Amino acid sequence: MDVPVPPASLFGWPGCQHVSPEIGALCAIGAPTDHGNVISRGASRGPAAIRRASLQLPELRLDGLDIGDVDRSDGPDPQRYLDRIAAVTQRIRERGLCPLLLGGDHSITYAPVSTLHRSRELCLIWFDAHTDFSPWSGQNFHNHKQVLRRISKLGGVSRIVQIGYRGITAGDERSLGAKSVVVTTSCARELDAQALLALVPYALPCYISIDIDVIDPLWAPGTSAPVPDGLLPDQLKGMLQTLVRHREILGVDLVEVNPVLDLEAATSRVAADLLHGIAEHWVHQRLRRSAPAGDAAFEAFAVAPVACETTRHGHPDPIQGARNAI
Amino acid sequence: MAILEAFCDEAPASGGEYPAGDARHSGPQGDPAGADPLLTTRLMVSDDLALESQDDTHIVVINTASSARTKLSLSAYRLLKAFARPCRIDQVAPAQVAAQILPQVRMLVDKQMLVDADAPVPADTVRLRTAVAYKFCGAPAYAKSKIPDFVILGVPYDLAGETDSRLAPALIRRKSLDYSYQLDFGDGRPRGWFDVNRGVWMLRGATLADAGDVPVDYGENRACWVERVGTALAECCTGHSVPLILGGDRSVTGAALGGLRHPGKLTVVQITADPEHAADGAGRHLLRMDKVERVVSLGACLDRRPETVRAWGDALSIYLSIDPSIAGARWTAPPGPTLHELKVLIAAIGKVHRIVGIELVGLDMRSRSPELAAITGCHLALAAMSAAHDRF
């Protein structure tokens, strides 16, 4: 793959030129860009900072790959860069690996999802303090404020689970359309494993996108649009591990880590730790590939999608709906 | 004639005379008995003026005291510049031209670009309030003609303690722009904001106006500053308006209370990361004020349960003083309350009592993350305003 090898790799993983990766392994790829961040520069330094921080964490039982950064040497054109990320994602999938993107601003998520949705319907799980559903009228531009609205128009994205919306906003964004469910941070704190899994149909493979601002900025201050009162790192880590253990994952990204705004690399460490938690449980994804269809161990948590209850405000209450289903 | 052309957009067609009935020709010129006093007044350019922009035909002048912008033709600008030093109109232009430029001079005087150079200078030359670059939440500037529900006033004073807080009002205002004050397209009333975690709309219909900052003249007698804060607050916070003070260090509390127009006794509730300081220092000082009945300090190590607010009494008038750095201060021992806990507490205060004033004080620009404290401060300010207005 035509990407330069970074000075430090994620968790010390080798590049693809050194090993033959096992089918289903995580394959890290950096997308050091901030073309879609309307607030501040710095997210482009995120991949390097996360990689550096990852080297301080305990060694993982399973290896993955780090194939470096998507090349951006030919200029800052967002569309061209996203096309390139999409192409790299496609090639990673063709090799039987799972893309793990290190952002970069959140606009990059459009690229992998726009590729992955073509082959299979998927469920997008969007951890973010914001809904990223700002108006978009179809123009050919990408920024992190409207990326989810844009992705929601992709035909293969059958379900969107937004987790972490919070703060004070101009409007009530708890309803993002028929195929979406929004779990506010205060609801997410109450979300146990079964309730979480009930929101994510078993039959649909998942793409997980993590905007680091879903975490409380007291733990992860290095991001461009922090919102107070977020999730604790361990709460998110628990949710990610639940998803990795019980749902098929097509790809993961972690975005909006901004080392320029960070305090003593705290945010990079939190980001690396979240990815470490995913990688630590990735063995379940490998086992899933080798498990025969209908394996009870994997279908134990299969919960059919349910109609959400409606709150007194007229909005769906995803947690209650999930609990009823269970 | 050259002078007249220099000052007027259009020179007279002939003979230096304007046609009869021309507004510029009206006035008492030529009649010594009814001579316009402006003709004999020494005028000069206001110190408050600054040039904002210019092109080939116009310039834009901003009055830094009022934030008023005025677009002037180049000829009017030349006329304005002629009064760079104190002088009468006839010292700027020959007598026959002076009468003709009088209307333009009057316009400049009316817009406070030219002022009487010999008018007595007030003993205290520091203005009560100054314009600021950003308004809180992008709210409109305060105007005396309207009484808003909330008046925002910055007090960038930090000489009474150790915190570096003089730039805190500016930082809070800048961060508040993420929560923009908008009017409903249909009815023109403020839209308010949606509080996601509580699932409620807040401050719908509540009007905000930003009155700028009370300037600090570093080196002046502290009593002068205290008096200026009190006067500025009393002037712009009338009727039912509730002030939101953006400090400044904790000493701002006493100065603000001095200007608060509230007939009854006040209970000052301090939400601070350092309640011992508040209770032993500022709290005792506040209790010496006639209008302060009680000081309650809530902090990291004190009871912050919502039900405690009822134990203070019934329907008290509360002046709420908040140190935004307290929220989630996990490095203190014990850790500070979470933002959610504080919002619940503030809502409980608003439900049981009446909030008559709000302030954010003690934000230290040298702290671990002043920007985050400023964002938290915006959340707490809006929550407190909601508690005062919506009384959830």
Structure description:
Chain B: InterPro entries: Ureohydrolase (IPR006035), Ureohydrolase_dom_sf (IPR023696). The complex is a heterodimer of chains A (326) and B (392). By secondary structure, chain A is of the alpha/beta class. Chain A has helices spanning 46-54, 78-94, 110-119, 147-152, 185-188, 193-199, 233-246, 266-280, 283-290, 296-299, 318-325; strands at 26-31, 65-69, 98-103, 122-127, 157-165, 168-169, 180-184, 206-211, 249-255, 309-310, 316-317. Chain A has one domain (10-325): Arginase, Chain A (3-Layer(aba) Sandwich), CATH 3.40.800. An eight-stranded parallel sheet of chain A has the order 2-1-3-9-8-4-5-7, with helices on both faces. In chain A, strands 10-11 form a two-stranded antiparallel sheet. Chain A starts with 25 loop residues before the first strand and ends with a helix. Residues 293-316 and 318-326 of chain A have low confidence and may be disordered. Classes of the chains: A alpha/beta (326), B alpha/beta (392). At the A-B interface, strand 6 of A face strand 7 and helix 11 of B.
